[in-house]
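To: structure desk
From: M.T.
Subject: fold request, one chain
Message: Could you run this one when you get a chance? Sequence is below, nothing fancy, just the single chain.
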Amino acid sequence: MTREQKIEVVESYIRGLGAGDFTGVPFAESVTFQSPLTPARVGRDAIEFLESIFPAIQGVEIKQHIVEGEYVSSVFDLHVTTGTIPVFDKFRVTDGKLHEIHPFYDPALLNEAVQAISTV
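Reply: Done. Structure tokens follow.
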């Protein structure tokens, strides 16, 4: 895969996260997700967890990508109902599929946003 193809896979995920719609995101069947808020989740469980936080997300703003081999690291702002969260995300992309998602961020604002939607 080219650098641009890997970035397109990652951007489909980031844009989907911001829009609340993962249609068209090429997730690998055994995609893994691990964040400051959750232990490792795999496959459909990972996708369902991410979809559960859609109501707290208001958009994204992509800042930068770094590509090395099958890894793409991205910096973006995640706009949530309680503010803006700077995110550094490490992805693994192979054969046109998103295999690993590992974000790094301060979870305080996301915790507040998720708690707010849970009480509605």
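Reply (cont.): The helical segments are 3-19, 44-52, 108-118. Let me know if you need anything else for the meeting.
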